Amino acid sequence: MKNHILFAFLLFSLFCSAQIKGTITDEKGNPLPFVSVYEENTYRGTTSNEQGNYQLQVKDIGKNKIVFQYLGFKTQKITVAADSKSIVLDVKMTEESFSLNEVVIDPKSNPANAIIKKAIAHKKENSEKTARFTADFYSKGILKVKDLPKKILGQKVDLGEDMASNLDSTGTGILYLSETLSQIAYEKPNKLKEKIIASKISGNSKGYSYNTASLSTYDFYENSIEFNINLISPIADNAFSYYKYQLEGSFFDDNKHQINKIKVTPKRDKEPVFEGYIYIVDDSYAIYALDLDIKGYRMKNEFTELMSITQSFSYNQKNKIWAKNVQTLSFNAGAFGVKFSGQFNYVYSNYEFPDSFAKKTFGNEIVAFDLNANKKDDAFWNEIRPIPLTIEESIDYTKKDSLLTIRKSKKYTDSIDAKNNKFKIWDILRGYDYKNTFDKYSFKYDGLLNITSLSFNTVQGFNLDSGFSFKKWNEENGKSSSISTTFNYGFSDERFRVTGEFSHRFNTINYATISASGGTKTEQFNSAEPITKFVNSISSLFFKDNYMKLYNLEFAQINYAQDVANGVNLNAKIAYEQRKPLFNTTDYSFFKRDDIYSSNNPLAPNDFSTPAFEQHHLMKASLAARINFGNKYISRPDGRYNFKDDKYPTVFLAFEKAFAGTEKKYEFERIGAAVQYDLSLGNKGILGMNLRAGKFFNAENISFIDYRHFNGNQTHIGTSGRYLNVFNLMPYYTNSTNDRYFELHSEYNDTGFIMNKLPLLNLLKSTMNIGFHALALPDRNPYTEFTVGLDNLGFGKFKLFRIDYVHSYQSGIEQNGVVFGLKILNVLD
């Protein structure tokens, strides 16, 4: 009912308003893009598109004064009489004459510094004026690609049939075009409620746009603004530590406000800073506008070459408030000769500034979509969109929308699938994919020579995977089902192992999912798999190091998971497990062939005949909870999408019970808890923490498999971006326990705060990591590690490496080592 009332209200507003439209040019007739256009003393406004075209809805029919405001040009105020529903008003703007005559320049001081100091002093006052508001919001986003090849590094670039067909023969065209119309309520610093009224994606009638107000709030009255990392505002409290300022001139707007144009220049090139211009209103020292650039390396995003943000503010003489009415965010990025560009335009209008909000205005739901948000027709959009489409955008909508019906038809999808589903004789070896797009199911065969699965260990020797998988899904209700089987063969132990799994997700609201799996496989004693197959293969074949310790697991298990409340996910599992010890079956390596591998017994690496445990079986049941405090979410008709609130930690709780064992001694109970938290230190970096604790009960004689094992590392190779779940020099099984335990991992990343200030080292554009790790057990001395290193290392745009010096200490034994971080291994394994 509420949706019908809202839609009726929008229609009523349209019929009771007039539309003013036209083209804005300079004196030479060149179109002016992104000119701020608004009705005087109101917050009803819009902006021109790249071709200078604009359209403005005027609520009250009569004489209206329309303001045209553009940086570098004189503000114009034109009175129009709305004698029809549509008025054409073309505007020619003249360049602004900047003057320094009104400014008394003291040779001993910089006049720009004095203005910025006053802007900082008045920052809290000006920010408070827009601390609470409601507004209408419109966004348009477009992403383009240029020179996209068919292959990159030998790998085929697969954009999907729909997207690829939108590019021309040179690999150039529009990848994404969308619009959003919403109503927002906002209260500083971060309370937001957004209702999406209309959402449109070119060529996707069922899609929902992602360019929302919740993702576009950039407040330069704050000390820092988040763009991948926290960048320093030109009027931050500590801005003079980062910027130099130059007053380039001043002018008067139509309300006789003196506007100061100040050039902003970084003091140090590698700092997280902006550069460009900020315009400050004299007397109030509010922001009038800004036009700033961000270089990609300054926000630790090497693939982005340049990002630009502009904001314009309009003034209302009735309430004396400068409020942001137009914002533009654009970027250029690229790699391998491929160029990407994007532009997002935002329009805020119809502001209201309440003294307070009702208590239940804000909640965990930050964005909600109207049920029919993506079903508005062209007539609706043509009438209500604030920024006219460019010719390129209109063509894109027309082309993609006209092809949509064809591309979604069974005849078309079947023809495309038939082309892609052709079976070739060599697919028996390399694998085969089959997809039915219309009926939404797919089948995959991995092939007899699935080279990407090839690995080596001393138990199986070289081993290879193959398998089959089937998946069926429903985009409307979020249901999906999959069934798969994996075949593994070890060439040295000549053993064939098979596992299978079935999984069904019931919806994308609470993500209720049930799964069942079973079979036979090799399993690491530490189920967290601290050493990857790839790293272990390299360690064994090249250095004759045998770190991966395996046993044979025959199992059957059922798992059920569901979000039971906002931010709370429960996972229940019951399993039958039969464990058998395994022994080395090969001594092969590429080098050091005279050396001998350690045994497969993690407790006795030099004992090749005694098994690590006796063969046995048991049942295990567990219940685990993940709690994201302050969890936020977006509600869409097709599902609910959760977002962790970084202000709060994530808590994990677990209970595990083993029963029905071969012998009573194998049965036990264990409770565990963990807290993970990232503490933001503003522009000074981020402190990550991971604390874990647990306790076993009735576990004096349990199998070593069920001990609590800790993630060590003896390879000196790091495979993750952050080391918050690993001890960098600790052997894999020397501290395993069946008693109580406490482990702490912490890591401070300066995000460049320190490194940017060090001569020569700042040329690396890297970040510094300082870490501390500790493990406390009841029957031995604590284990501790201190680390210091550099992250974000690499060549050109590819920052895939880090290096750390590590010092460890336990029971009087000190170790020193270097860990080389190869984050690309996350992809390879």
Write structural notes for this entry.
Helices cover 11% and strands 46% of the residues. The longest helix has 18 residues, at 391-408. The protein is globular. The protein has 829 residues and is mainly beta. Mean pLDDT is 89; it is low at 1-16. The strands form six sheets. It has a 19-stranded mixed sheet that branches. Residues 1-18 form the signal peptide. This is Carboxypeptidase-like regulatory domain-containing protein. Keywords: Signal.
Question: What portion of the residues fall into strands of 2 or more residues?
Answer: over 45%
Arithmetic mean pLDDT: 89
Helical coverage, percent range: 10-25%
- How would you sum up the global shape? globular
Overall strand count? 44
Q: How many DSSP H or I helices?
A: 10
Poorly predicted regions: 1-16
Main sheet attributes: strand count, strand direction, barrel closure: 19 strands, mixed
Helix-and-strand structural type: mainly beta
Distance between the termini: 52 Å
Radius of gyration (Å)? 31 Å
